[in-house]
Every structure is written in structure tokens, then in C-alpha cells.
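// run 5 | inverse folding | seed 20
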């Protein structure tokens, strides 16, 4: 098993970015890695790809960030949201672009989880709600790696999930020695995303393992469970996991608060469905 884990880590390191990812993402990784890079340089890079910047702007103006006015340029988005959030958005837009056609369910699950995380973060007054939404948007990104790099195993997981009522991450742990959460964390690290995004991704199925950002992790976990429970999108299996005790403890929600959150998420998911259809539109013009 250790060998498998090392193999996956090596694969991630070697490719640094997915082979099908546009070069812009690896260029952005290099820019963000360099401390001297200015916001203008990053904005210029994202803006050089019309489709990507249109997608980033749609996400920035989506229900989960909720800025009062319309954000119409990438540099404004960078100023409002910060480099890490915009980088996270550009990564999700690029990665899901290649998945949209065949994995619409996972894309919608991810968008839905981002919207739900935003509702929870705002309701409980958690700081850095934008970062939390972005981590939620990327939380299942490890599934993309598993699907692409371990195609054969992935098919096997799918049938086990169907036949044995196993969850996807249990099947992954058994045969790969790591699940998509941990793999997603490795991937986010290789893209130089900060720990506050990495940890919620890596620990969304093991909240108690989160040591530095347990509140952010608990929010992403709860958002994931609620979106699955609501039957929105499709993340690979139909099992709704229990909300973990560590998450309950960290969030300290009353029943009434939870009910309020669920109602608001249900409303938001209608907007998210429209957003998903809009983002998938084949000929996106810049917003
Ligand atoms: Fe997951
Ligand atoms: Fe998920």
C-alpha cells in the first residue's frame, strides 16, 4: 500500500499539472510561486484566455461569493478575492472543463458544495468565507486524478460502489491506499495553494484529522453531506455519509440553525443549477 501511495504522489509531482490542463494553469503556478509576481501579471495571464476568464468571472459573480455589484474584470476579482481564490477558481474551471461533458454530476456536486459552504460560513460568521467556498469547490478534485490516472481501478470502484453499497472513498482506500481527499490535498499542494485550502480538501472525509483549519474543514464536510443529502449533482456514489462528531463539535449548530441552513441551501441550489448550465454553454462570451 505504501508503494501505491508513493506511486500516486510521484505521478502528481511528475505531471505537476494534469496533461489535459491548459498550459495557463502551470504558468499560473509558476507565477504564484514567485513572491515578486504582481496581481497585474496574474490578471494579464488569466485574461489572455477568454474562455477561462469568462468562467472565472461567472464563478466570481455566482451566488456563493455574493458581491453586491458585478465584478467585471479579472483584476477586480483578484483584488476582491485574492490570488489564492482566483487561482482556485481558474483551476476548477479548467479541470472541470475537461470533465463537463462526461462528469457533469461531479461538477454540479462541486458547485453545489461551494454554494452550501458559503451559506454555512456566512450563517455562523466564519472568517474567510470566500476561501471556504473555494476549498469546497475543489474538495473532490482528487476524484479527477483517480479517474484519469487510475482508469481501470476507477471502473472497478464504480462497480463496487454500485454492488456493495460502499462509498467511493472506502473503495479508493482499499485499493489505492489513499482516498480522493488525500490525493486532492497532494494535488493542491503541488499547485502551491495555501494550507487553508489544502486542509479542508484533504480532510473533508476525516474532520478530526484537520489540525490547523478545523472550522473550515468542518464547513466543507457539512456542505458536502448536505448537498449529497439533497440529491444535488452526483459525486460518484449515492451514499449520504453521517455528519462526523468532530464537525458537529466544531460547528456547534442548534437544530434551528441547521434547519435554516438547509432551507437557504435548497434555495441557492436552484441558482447553482442555472449557473452550471450557463458555465457549460459551449460558446461563452466574456462577461
Ligand atoms: Fe469527497
Ligand atoms: Fe463531495
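// decoded
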Amino acid at each position: 500500500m505504501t508503494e501505491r501511495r508513493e506511486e500516486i504522489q510521484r505521478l502528481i509531482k511528475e505531471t505537476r499539472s494534469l496533461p489535459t490542463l491548459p498550459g495557463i494553469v502551470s504558468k499560473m503556478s509558476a507565477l504564484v510561486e514567485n513572491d515578486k509576481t504582481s496581481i497585474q501579471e496574474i490578471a494579464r495571464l488569466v485574461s489572455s484566455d477568454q474562455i477561462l476568464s469568462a468562467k472565472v468571472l461567472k464563478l466570481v459573480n455566482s451566488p456563493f461569493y455574493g458581491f453586491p455589484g458585478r465584478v467585471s474584470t479579472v483584476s477586480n476579482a483578484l483584488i476582491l478575492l485574492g490570488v489564492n481564490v482566483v487561482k482556485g477558481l481558474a483551476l476548477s474551471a479548467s479541470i472541470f472543463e475537461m470533465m463537463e461533458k462526461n462528469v457533469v454530476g461531479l461538477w454540479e456536486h462541486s458547485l453545489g458544495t461551494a454554494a452550501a459552504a458559503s451559506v454555512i460560513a456566512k450563517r455562523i460568521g466564519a472568517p474567510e468565507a470566500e476561501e471556504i467556498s473555494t476549498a469546497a469547490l475543489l474538495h473532490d478534485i482528487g476524484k479527477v486524478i483517480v479517474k484519469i490516472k487510475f482508469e481501470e481501478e476507477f471502473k472497478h470502484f464504480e462497480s463496487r460502489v454500485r454492488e456493495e453499497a460502499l462509498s467511493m472513498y472506502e473503495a479508493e482506500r482499499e485499493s489505492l491506499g489513499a482516498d480522493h481527499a488525500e490525493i486532492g490535498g497532494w494535488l493542491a499542494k503541488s499547485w502551491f495553494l495555501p494550507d487553508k485550502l489544502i486542509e479542508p480538501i484533504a480532510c473533508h472525509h476525516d474532520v478530526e484529522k484537520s489540525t490547523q483549519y478545523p472550522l473550515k474543514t468542518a464547513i466543507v464536510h457539512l456542505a458536502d453531506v448536505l448537498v449529497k443529502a439533497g440529491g444535488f449533482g452526483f459525486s460518484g456514489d449515492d451514499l449520504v455519509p453521517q455528519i462526523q462528531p468532530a464537525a458537529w463539535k466544531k460547528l456547534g449548530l442548534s437544530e434551528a440553525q441547521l434547519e435554516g441552513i438547509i432551507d437557504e441551501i435548497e434555495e441557492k441550489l436552484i441558482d447553482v443549477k442555472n449557473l452550471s448550465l450557463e458555465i457549460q454553454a459551449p460558446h461563452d462570451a466574456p462577461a
